[in-house]
Specification:
single chain, 225 residues, alpha/beta, Rossmann fold, eight-stranded mixed sheet, 6 helices
């Protein structure tokens, strides 16, 4: 298995700081920034599972909280911050800038992996920085919450939805054709919203790995001679 160095980071984001876990394999081919949603955090076991699969494929990952501890406590009581896509997208932009400025990650092709409402934030951030974001993967996402910016998204985008997640599947189908760049919809048969069924999350990780490896790998050098 590939050697992966992991460290905790604290990223300034306006008046707050966001805590995260940065994982760097040897000679990474790209980096994937995770956008959590719907009350989740960097400790999400599902996202950490996907991140581990990406790391073994040679991709660095940053799992960071988009809300502070105080904001998470507030959101647990009101559930309103998790739907503040503008705020979540802004926080994702701060994390993106930090990665671009860090000498370990600044030159790496960048992708977003968004889950639930975090996927909407990822699409908002991708629309604002088309020259930076090279790929987006959404797991059980809510692209409808980013509806106004979908035509501006140029990054190749893969929407992954469970076959039994009926409402979210319909919302993703409707959003698919509004995206401005390359896009695809992958349906995991028999899976519900959290992909808790046997093998469902493995399929999510496989699809995400293939999408990011394809779109974050540097172009092949032209043959000489």
């Amino acid at each position: 298995m590939a050697s992966v160095a992991t460290e905790g980071v604290s990223v300034p984001a306006g008046r707050v700081r966001l805590e995260g876990d940065l994982a760097l394999p040897e000679s990474p081919r790209g980096i994937v920034l995770f956008a959590h949603g719907s009350g989740s955090s960097r400790h999400s076991p599902r996202n950490r599972f996907v991140a581990a699969v990406l790391q073994q494929a040679g991709l660095a990952t940053l799992l960071a909280d988009l809300l502070t501890r105080a904001e998470e406590d507030e959101d647990a009581a009101t559930a309103h911050l998790r739907f503040d896509i503008g705020l979540l997208g802004e926080r994702l932009a701060y994390l993106t800038d930090w990665l671009l400025q860090d000498p370990r990650t600044g030159a790496l092709p960048l992708g977003y992996f968004g889950a639930s409402t975090g996927a909407a934030a990822a699409l908002v951030a991708a629309a604002e920085r088309p020259e930076v974001v090279r790929a987006v993967v959404s797991r059980g996402g809510r692209p409808d919450l980013a509806a106004p910016v979908l035509p501006k998204v140029r990054a190749p985008t893969l929407l992954i939805v469970g076959g039994r997640d009926t409402l979210v599947l319909r919302l993703n189908r409707e959003a698919l054709y509004r995206l401005g760049g390359e896009r695809d919809l992958a349906i995991v048969p028999g899976a519900t919203h959290l992909f808790e069924e046997p093998g469902a999350l493995d399929e999510v990780a496989r699809l995400a790995r293939e999408w990011f490896v394809r779109h974050l790998s540097p172009p092949a050098s032209p043959a000489v001679g």
